[in-house]
Amino acid sequence: MDRFIWANGLLEINETLVIQQRGVRLYDGDEKAKFDMGTLLLSTHRLLWRDAKNHEYCIAIPLSQIVFFEEQAAGIGKSAKIVVHLHPASANKEPGPYQSSPNNYIKLSFREHGQIEFYRRLTETMTQRRWERVPASQLIQPTNTSQAGRTRAVGIVGIERKLEEKRKETDKNISEAFEDLSKLMEKAKEMVELSKSIANKIKDKQGDITEDETIRFKSYLLSMGIANPVTRETHGSGTHYHLQLAKQLAQILQTPLEERGGMMALTEVYCLVNRARGMELLSPEDLVNACKLFENLKLPLRLRIFDSGVMVVQLQSHNEQEMITSAVDNVSDKGSLTAEELAKLLGISVLLSKERLLLAEKMGNLCRDDSVEGLRFYPNLF
C-alpha cells in the first residue's frame, strides 16, 4: 500500500478512463486496509480508488508499478479478488496514505462482482502500455531564446538515444562476462596440461617433480576431478563412445566402490561421475548404456538390476553371500531393523540397505512385519 499516492480523482492530459467498478475493497497484502467499499477506476495510466461517500478522498498508483497480476477465486463468505504484485516503492515517491508496508502486493476485493470484466480490461491495458507513449506535441521542443537555432534531443530522438546507450552498456557487460569465461577456460586448460605432465613423469619415472609442482598438482586435483573426460566431441556419438566411456567409468569407480562395500546405486554413481567431470556433464542414458558394457568388456564392474527395478553398479568380486550374512547378523544383533536403521549402521544409502534386507528375505533368512509404522525385518525363526 505504500506505493499509492494522494490524487484529486481527475484524469490527466492524454489519460483515458477504461473501466470503473463500485464496491471494491483494498487489501495490504492479506490484511484489510482502511479503504472499504469504494469505486475502483482503471485508466490508461493509473489505478485509482475513490471513497464511495467522500469523492475527494482518492488514491492512485501508476500502472508502471505493476509487475504482474492474477485472479483469486471467490470462496465461502469471500469475494473474488485480483492480486496485484508491485515493484518496490521509489525513494522520491509522492506522499500517500502509507509511509511503508511490508508487503509487495495488494488485493482488489470485488464485493459487488464485476471482477471478470475488470481483469480482462486490465490485461488489455497492461498489454497496450499507453503510458509509455510520448505525445506528438512533446516530440521536439524549441529551447529558450539564448539557445536559438538549437533543439534538444527529446521525444523519439531522446528515446532512441537512450536505447542506443543501453544497448552499448549491455554489449559491454556481455563482452566482460565472456572475457572472464575465456580466462577461466584458459586456466582450466593449464591445469589439465599440468596434471598430464606430472602424471607422465610419475608413469615414465623421468625427471624430478619439484615441491612447487606437487603442491599445485594436489590443489588442482581436488578441484578438477577427471582431467580428460570422454566426450562425444572426442570419441564420436556411437558405440565407440560408450565403449570408451565404460572403460573410463571402470577406472574412476573402482576405488569408490571398494570404499562403499562393493556396491553403489546408479543414482549415486551418476552424481559422483558428473561431479568429477565438471562442465562435461553425462546424460543418464549415456551412463546406463556405458554400464551395460562392463561385462562384455570384461571390466571389474557390472550393472545389476534388482527385482524391484533398482539399478546398481557393483564389483565383479562382490560377494553376495557376505552381503546377505552381514544383513542377517545385524538384524539378529538388534532384534529387528528397518532399512533406515541398517543404512545408518553400515553407512550406505537407504535404497541399498533395503535391497540387502529384501535379498536376505528372499533367501529365507529374514521375515518382515509391514505395519503402519513401516517395514521392519526380523530373523526368520520359522
TrEMBL record:
<comment type="similarity">
    <text>Belongs to the VPS36 family.</text>
</comment>
<dbReference type="InterPro" id="IPR036388">
    <property type="entry name" value="WH-like_DNA-bd_sf"/>
</dbReference>
<keyword id="KW-0967">Endosome</keyword>
<keyword id="KW-0963">Cytoplasm</keyword>
<comment type="function">
    <text>Component of the ESCRT-II complex (endosomal sorting complex required for transport II), which is required for multivesicular body (MVB) formation and sorting of endosomal cargo proteins into MVBs.</text>
</comment>
<keyword id="KW-0175">Coiled coil</keyword>
<keyword id="KW-0653">Protein transport</keyword>
<dbReference type="InterPro" id="IPR021648">
    <property type="entry name" value="GLUE_dom"/>
</dbReference>
<dbReference type="GO" id="GO:0043130">
    <property type="term" value="F:ubiquitin binding"/>
</dbReference>
<dbReference type="Pfam" id="PF11605">
    <property type="entry name" value="Vps36_ESCRT-II"/>
</dbReference>
<dbReference type="InterPro" id="IPR040608">
    <property type="entry name" value="Snf8/Vps36"/>
</dbReference>
<dbReference type="InterPro" id="IPR011993">
    <property type="entry name" value="PH-like_dom_sf"/>
</dbReference>
<feature type="coiled-coil region">
    <location>
        <begin position="160"/>
        <end position="187"/>
    </location>
</feature>
<keyword id="KW-0813">Transport</keyword>
<dbReference type="GO" id="GO:0032266">
    <property type="term" value="F:phosphatidylinositol-3-phosphate binding"/>
</dbReference>
<dbReference type="GO" id="GO:0043328">
    <property type="term" value="P:protein transport to vacuole involved in ubiquitin-dependent protein catabolic process via the multivesicular body sorting pathway"/>
</dbReference>
<comment type="subunit">
    <text>Component of the endosomal sorting complex required for transport II (ESCRT-II).</text>
</comment>
<protein>
    <recommendedName>
        <fullName>Vacuolar protein-sorting-associated protein 36</fullName>
    </recommendedName>
</protein>
<dbReference type="InterPro" id="IPR037855">
    <property type="entry name" value="Vps36"/>
</dbReference>
<dbReference type="InterPro" id="IPR036390">
    <property type="entry name" value="WH_DNA-bd_sf"/>
</dbReference>
<dbReference type="GO" id="GO:0000814">
    <property type="term" value="C:ESCRT II complex"/>
</dbReference>
<feature type="domain" description="GLUE N-terminal">
    <location>
        <begin position="1"/>
        <end position="138"/>
    </location>
</feature>
<dbReference type="Pfam" id="PF04157">
    <property type="entry name" value="EAP30"/>
</dbReference>
<dbReference type="GO" id="GO:0031902">
    <property type="term" value="C:late endosome membrane"/>
</dbReference>
